[in-house]
Design goal:
With 261 residues, the chain is an alpha/beta fold. It has 9 helices and 10 strands. A 6-stranded mixed sheet has the order 6-7-8-3-9-10, with helices on both faces. A 4-stranded antiparallel sheet has the order 2-1-4-5, covered by helices on one side.
Amino acid sequence: MKMESNLLKIKSVKKSFGKNIVLNDINLSVSKGEVVSIIGPSGSGKTTLLRCINMLTEYDEGSIQIENTEIGYTSSDETTRKKRNDKQLSSIRSDIGMVFQLFYLFPHLTALENVMLGLRKVRKLSKSEATQIASGWLERVGLSDKFKSLPSQLSGGQQQRVGIARAVAMDPKLLLLDEITSALDPELIQEVLDVVKKLAEDGMTMILVTHEMSFAKDVSDRIVFMDGGFIVTDRNPHETFHSNDNQRLNEFLSRIKQEKF
């Protein structure tokens, strides 16, 4: 996989909820075409970091840039910066796809209509253009026979694949995946992971928060371990799982006994 340049730059980001410091001086860069997995115990700040990248959660200090454009604010200077208005924020967010733990599909829309919605409302494509793109992505995630199905007629794995198709149909520069298999039955997990693996092979830039250690090892260029709001380690998969000397990371990995590396 070729790394062209830094797509995402996170510098000195801090976030607190009251007295609880959730993100503490986070620094992270992600290159185009790179897949970065974020692992760590519950409450370590993983999901909050993803939500800050997409400005679904406002951060208190620091800078988050995509292609050198500050995402949530007009400036990286905390003393002068202002939050972007809704129009600016919507435009920037359209370049950042996000898939959540829960599926968040519109229950009254078919699979095809769910994928088309952003293409019509945000990208302002014609109905025929949106239909072509949406149907193409549903085919790529293995749902060519489910175009007219409502979410209630789909399995959890199928609903999550619709969610992925909806995100990537927007042609984002960066795709964020937040524990996308955590709400699925074990037998449905692999079908979703296979879709993500294919996206990685196709060069999609991704940040995934996951507890699927074997999958993270297989698909990632780098693995970031977070604990207590800090980035503790940022290493390649081999260093993370086979030759790491960090006691806290080793303690975390030892607790995940169901995975084999």
